Amino acid sequence: MLKPFLFVSSAILLLAIAPLSAPAGAAPQTGANPVKTTAASQEKAKKLFSQDCAMCHGATGDGKTDLAKDMKLDLTDWTDPKTFAGKSDHDLYDIIRKGKGDKMPAEDASRAKDDEVWSLVTYLRTLAKTPSAAPAPAAAPADAPAPADAPKANN
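The structure assignment produced for this chain is given below.
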């Protein structure tokens, strides 16, 4: 009788403790970015990008650099909004953290903290150029004469 009780209580205890034993700073498994965007975090992300990413991906993120050309790399153009279509923030976080192929090294925790990588994800999305809207028609000057076919007001 005591053995089944100990087994069940041990299992319950393990299930209760397991979520608490996740590694500190582990990335959430949802697509949402857990880091609040601030001007300071984006400035830090911009600096991280210029130090660690721009050499290959370019200062604007277009992927057209001499190094990429010399290494025969066809890098994704991050200035194109379609690049990010269908990619969650978590997908981008994983690519940065784990690296991609043999050419893009992982950004390990000794080089960038989790919150810095999440901020970098937000910064990368800002590199995408948004399509410009059609220009608004020019407004007629206030003192412009009324068109000839316009009805005249009775005073």
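Interim note for the steering committee: The chain has six helices and no strands. The chain has a mean pLDDT of 76.
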